[in-house]
Amino acid sequence: MSDVPETAHTPDEFTINCLSDLVSMQTVTNTSNLGIIDYLEERLAPLGGEMHRSYDETGTKANLLVRLGPRTGPGLMLSGHTDVVPVAGQQWSTDPWTLRREADRLYGRGACDMKGYLACMVTVVETLARTAGLESLPGPLYLAFSYDEEIGTRGVQGLIAQFGELGYSAELCVVGEPTRMQVGAGHKSILQGTCTVTGSEAHSSLEPEAANALYGAARLITRLEEMEIAREADGPFDRRYGVPHSTVHAAVVEAGVALNIVPRTARFGFEFRCIPGEDPRDLLGEVRGFGEREVLPALSRRASAADIDWTVDIEGPGLDMADDDPAVARVMAAADAAAPVRMPYATEAGRFQLAGIPAVLCGPGNIEQAHKPDEYITLGDLARCERFLRTLLAAPPGATPPGATR
C-alpha cells in the first residue's frame, strides 16, 4: 500500500468547481471571451489587486492582467490563454461544455488545454489570500489571461506591451500549457501560411494552351517535401527535441472547379516549425526562391498574368531557455522535476522570452488529450499543479522551495 495519502492525488473541490465554470464558457477562438474575463475579474477583484484589460481591435476580446501582493521586489507571473479550439465536427460522448467527472478524469473542452491550469491559478491564489495573505508573497504576483493563443499567440502581444507600459517587471513567467507537470525549457518557432498560384483557364482538351495552376502548386509542394526530407536526413539537429530537426509541412490543397477545366488557381497551406538556430523566414525564402526561379517562368510562358503569392497567417517565436538558467531551476525545484524537456508545439512562452521575460512551461494535462473529442484532465494532474503553485509562490527567487529537491 502506498504511503502517499489519498488527498495528495485529489484537487481542491474549489478548483474542480472553478474548472466547471470555465469549461461552461464557450470561448472558442472565433467568439468573444469577455464573459470569461468578467468572471475572472469577479473572482480576483476581492483580493485587492490592480486589474488591467487590453482589447483587440473589435473590442470583443480582451486580455486580463492582474497584479497582486507586494509592490516591490522581483515579480512572478503565471500565464494562460482563455480561448479553446472548436468542437464542430467532433464526436463527443456528452456535452463538451459541461464538465463531466468519470473516475479520475474530468472531461470538457479546454479542461486540458488549458482551463485546468487557469482554475488552479485562481483557487490557489484565493486560498493563499484567505490563509497567509498575499502580502506574505516574496514579491509581486502577476496573473495573465490572454485571448487568441490558438490562432498564432496574437492576444498576448498586447498584454506584454501593456505590462511594459505599466512599468511592471517579472523575473519568471510560468506558462501552464499541458506538459504533464514536466518543465519545458524550450519549444520550436512556427510559421504557417497560404500559397496561391495563379495560371490560366482552358478546356481540358486544350490543356497545352493554358497554365495549369495545380501543376505549379504541385511542384512547390514537392519542393517542400524535399526540404523536409533533407532536414530529416542531414539536419541541423537539436537532440533535446523528440523530433530533433525543423519540420516542413503542406496541407489543405484547393484547385479547380471541374475536371474538364484547366485550373486557373490553386491554393495550399504550408507550415514550418524550427529548432533554435533555424529561422522559419529563411525556409520560406528557400521555397519562394524556387518558385520564382523554376515554377513562375514556366507558368508565365502560357499566362502573362501568372503569379505566386505567399501569405503568412500565423507566426510565433520559439522558446530557448538554458537548462541551467535560474528561472528554469526555480520551476524545476517547485515541480520536483528531474530534467527540463523541449516541446514540439508553439506557445506564448516564446513571446515572453522575446520581450525579455524569462519563461518556462509547466502545467497539468497531457497535450495528447488536447483538441480532441472527449478532451480530459486527471484529478491527479490538477492536484500536482496545485502543490506546484503553492510551492512556487512560497519560494523567493534563487531559493529551493520548501519540500522540493534539486
Write a structural description.
The chain has two domains: 6-186 and 319-394, Zn peptidases (Aminopeptidase), CATH 3.40.630; 189-316, Alpha-Beta Plaits, CATH 3.30.70. It has nine helices and 16 strands. A six-stranded mixed β-sheet has the order 1-2-6-3-7-15. A four-stranded antiparallel β-sheet has the order 10-11-9-12, with helices on one face. It has a three-stranded antiparallel β-sheet with strand order 4-5-16. The model is unreliable at 1-7 and 400-406 (pLDDT under 50). By secondary structure, it is of the alpha/beta class. It has helices at 13-24, 34-44, 111-130, 155-165, 213-234, 280-300, 326-335, 349-354, 379-394, and strands at 50-55, 62-68, 76-81, 100-102, 105-107, 141-146, 172-175, 184-187, 189-198, 247-255, 265-274, 307-316, 319-320, 341-343, 359-361, 376-378. The radius of gyration is 24 Å and the shape is elongated. Strand 1 (50-55) and strand 2 form a beta hairpin. Helices cover 32% and strands 22% of the residues.
Briefly summarize what is shown.
It is built from nine helices and 16 strands.
Which descriptors would you attach to this protein?
406 residues, alpha/beta, Aminopeptidase, Alpha-Beta Plaits, 6-stranded mixed β-sheet, 4-stranded antiparallel β-sheet, 9 helices, disordered N terminus, disordered C terminus
